[in-house]
Write a structure and sequence with these properties.
There is one protein chain. The chain is an alpha+beta fold. The N terminus is likely disordered. A hairpin with a 2-residue loop joins strand 5 and strand 6. Helix 9 crosses helix 12, helix 10 crosses helix 11 and helix 12 runs parallel beside helix 16. 47% of the residues lie in helices and 9% in strands. The strands form four sheets. A five-stranded mixed sheet has the order 1-2-10-7-3, with helices on both faces. Strands 4-12-11 form a three-stranded antiparallel sheet.
Length: 418
């Protein structure tokens, strides 16, 4: 549920600074999706901040220190209107036909502060922790038929079902409708990727509008007759007498719904794949279930569900000795920062006991993931339940494939025997 967004140059930047030429790096190839880290290590070794073509004024940031500094600095904005020549086609607010509505991903204070404050109450660590027994019961029910069958496609049968069921129940969406949202959400989330072909863009727009239309009917119903759910709370919430406008409510409910399960689905799929490929760590967790907290943090660092986020300089600014002009854009490659050897010892090694949760998978600063506590809880419950219950888990089919996303990183499927 990270607040993520990238600009129009995100998918295929051509890197060529004055002192280094890494050629045209295509981030969309199956080889890069399978293992991007050799490329990221090479980029970081050349320079943690690499400039693309001067005309595009876009920079790729792979170093942890630089990424963290940019994400926590309010002189960097996620609002695409700060680009010198913003293209409305690349602004998701416009793309989903909601005019100038305030999408939490793409706005700055004071509107960001106002909207986030209205939305955050349901996602505090204390509020989320109260959901643990319900999430555990849901997971146990899902594991029973898997045990009987002996196999499961983990991404769809657990990675999707658990978080989408939880966010449906939180928002007051009938759980019986949960299967309708998978294709819509997957298509809509591609709009975050920036440069897309026409077919993918149109599918994304259609998916977003189908969700908005569905949720819009529920919003109208909750306005007439409130119930005890998050959607009713958002409809009627005010801060200093000001609530969410109709457009703000619809588009940010869409954001909550999509982000509420897309990223957690990737956490569960990527995390279990990492453990199954690192058996010593899987056995370590089985022997010591109390490690699940640090294990999930390490899995988030090692192969997190959010790959990249973008910021635009709102004034001239210097980061790590690099000067940026107002309007310059950076792509903070979170996956690369999370494997920076200047920040994490032996970064390519999975270590579920690593006592360092300072990864950037949930971003940083004012756009820190609204649903971080919920994602952590769901990941902990699903992963620990699988590890403790099924001693003989094995991957059935390799190599695995990653979804055709750039901003989000997740497996298409992960078939395992239990």
């Amino acid at each position: 549920m990270d607040e993520i967004g990238v600009g129009p140059d995100a998918r295929r930047p051509s890197i060529g600074g004055d002192d280094v030429d890494l050629g045209g790096i295509d981030f969309t190839t199956p080889e890069h999706r399978a293992d991007p880290h050799p490329t990221y290590h090479a980029m970081r070794a050349a320079d943690p901040v690499l400039a693309s073509t001067r005309e595009e004024r876009t920079h790729l940031v792979t170093g942890f220190a630089a990424c963290e500094a940019i994400l926590r600095d309010t002189r960097w904005s996620s609002d695409p209107s700060h680009r010198p020549e913003p293209d409305p086609a690349d602004d998701v607010r416009t793309a989903v036909s909601l005019g100038d509505s305030n999408v939490l991903l793409f706005i700055d204070p004071p509107d960001h502060t106002r909207i986030r404050k209205l939305m955050t109450k349901a996602f505090t660590p204390r509020a989320v922790e109260r959901l643990r027994p319900k999430v555990q019961a849901l997971v146990d029910d899902l594991l029973d038929p898997i045990e009987q069958r002996g196999t499961t496609e983990l991404v769809s049968e657990l990675g999707y079902i658990v978080p989408v069921t939880v966010i449906c129940e939180m928002l007051g969406v009938p759980v019986t409708d949960r299967d309708r949202f998978g294709p819509w959400s997957s298509d809509a989330s591609r709009l975050l990727d920036g440069e897309l072909d026409e077919e993918t863009t149109n599918r994304g727009l259609l998916g977003a509008m189908q969700i908005i239309t569905y949720l819009g009917d529920l919003i109208d119903a909750r306005r007439r007759q409130p119930t005890d759910d998050l959607l009713s709370a958002l409809v009627h919430a005010t801060e200093d007498g000001v609530g969410l406008s109709e457009e703000e409510l619809r588009v940010n409910t869409l954001l909550l719904f999509v982000a509420g399960h897309e990223t957690t689905m990737n956490l569960i799929g990527n995390g279990m794949y990492a453990l199954l490929r690192n058996r010593s760590q899987l056995e370590r967790l089985r022997d010591d279930p109390a490690l699940i907290g640090s294990a999930v943090e390490e899995l988030l660092r090692y192969d997190g569900p959010a790959h990249v986020t973008a910021r635009i300089a709102v004034t001239d600014v210097e980061v790590g000795g690099h000067r940026f002009a107002e309007g310059d854009q950076v792509l903070a490659i979170l996956a690369a920062a999370n494997r920076d050897p200047m920040r994490f010892g032996d970064p390519d090694r999975l270590d579920i006991g690593r006592d360092d949760g300072a990864h950037l998978s949930f971003s940083h600063g004012i756009h820190y993931c609204l649903g971080a506590a919920l994602a952590r809880l769901e990941g902990q419950v699903v992963i620990n339940s699988l590890v403790q219950r099924f001693a003989g888990m094995e991957i059935v089919t390799e190599p695995v494939e990653y979804r055709d996303h750039f901003v989000l990183r997740g497996l298409k499927e992960l078939v395992i025997s239990v």
